[in-house]
Amino acid sequence: MYSEALKTGRKIFAVAPMIDWTDRHCRYLHRQISRHALLYTEMVVADAIIHGPRDRLLGYDAAEHPVALQLGGSDPAKLSQALRIAEAHGYDEINLNVGCPSDRVQSGTFGACLMLTPETVASCVAAMKAVSKAPVTVKCRIGVDDQEPEEALPELMTRVLDAGADAIWIHARKAWLKGLSPKENREIPPLDYEIVYRMKQRWPDVFIGINGGIQTLDQAEAHLAHVDGVMLGRAAYQNAAILADVDHRFYGAQAVESDWNALRDRMMAYTERHIAEGGRLQHVARHMVGLFSGLPGSRRYRQILSTDANKPGAGPEVIAAAFAAVDFAGEGERVSA
């Protein structure tokens, strides 16, 4: 994937891994809107794969490809074991989390705190490369706490690239492990896109992607003049309709008008299958709430999904009712019933 992108100059657009957000239902929705965007799982801890419900943690719909598995951990042996288990699921990429600043991640000595021990990250990457058929990548910050990014980031990159990492995704801000919450760590530390650009200049033959604070496809396109990939997180989740133009703008697909009726029908069918397997409508519907932000009728759309999807026995008809509330093309031109 990444070597081909470098050879052809093709850029990669991705939706960032987000804990509690980018589960299999979220990814299925995103895939219905963009056929080509690279999708990521939530971070899955290696210990959970080894000892927990593997099918629930690793299972996904075949329609989600290309999809990457993000792993959390700092023990090379456990990461290797988890990867052997995950191998049968056929993920298109394996990504190591070196950027999450949450307390529970810190207590496990992985995530962003691994920026402090680049030699450990390199050992983890080498162990993962030894057993993975898919590309192994790293997603990191530019530094943590009092680290100097101009020193910490190149050191980490040098070590993981020497260990065989196929690509590096960089969240272009520090993480403060003490004093800031995970939410504050996504907003307060200043963004420094220029340092990511400099890393690409230093390693022109390495795939380097950028993440952090990117809100629009115009901004994404501007970044791609400097790096190989761009990753949107909350902006893509909170208004997933933004993904509708990704295939045309970044992958050369023919521009077509979005068929929201077709999306409605696919999500209704998917939800019906999920409910038949013992799931609940809300498992899927919660990811759809922000889909049409800003369109006439979107407030009523959100109300229906947020309220009715939680009711006992709620089924796919709730999705139909929500879509019917949205005015997509002008006054009186709503999604057909």
TrEMBL record:
GO terms for molecular function: flavin adenine dinucleotide binding; FMN binding; tRNA binding; tRNA-dihydrouridine20 synthase activity; tRNA-dihydrouridine20a synthase activity. It catalyses: 5,6-dihydrouridine(20) in tRNA + NAD(+) = uridine(20) in tRNA + NADH + H(+); 5,6-dihydrouridine(20) in tRNA + NADP(+) = uridine(20) in tRNA + NADPH + H(+); 5,6-dihydrouridine(20a) in tRNA + NAD(+) = uridine(20a) in tRNA + NADH + H(+); 5,6-dihydrouridine(20a) in tRNA + NADP(+) = uridine(20a) in tRNA + NADPH + H(+). The keyword Cytoplasm does not apply. Gene3D superfamilies: 1.20.120.1460, Aldolase class I. It comes from the Bacteria. Its EC number is 1.3.1.91. Residues 15-313 form the DUS-like FMN-binding domain. Its cofactor is FMN. The active site is at C100 (proton donor). InterPro entries: Aldolase_TIM (IPR013785), DUS-like_FMN-bd (IPR035587), DUS_fam (IPR001269), DusA (IPR004653), tRNA_hU_synthase_CS (IPR018517). It holds the Pfam family Dus. Catalyzes the synthesis of 5,6-dihydrouridine (D), a modified base found in the D-loop of most tRNAs, via the reduction of the C5-C6 double bond in target uridines. Specifically modifies U20 and U20a in tRNAs. This is tRNA-dihydrouridine(20/20a) synthase. It comes from Rhizobium miluonense.
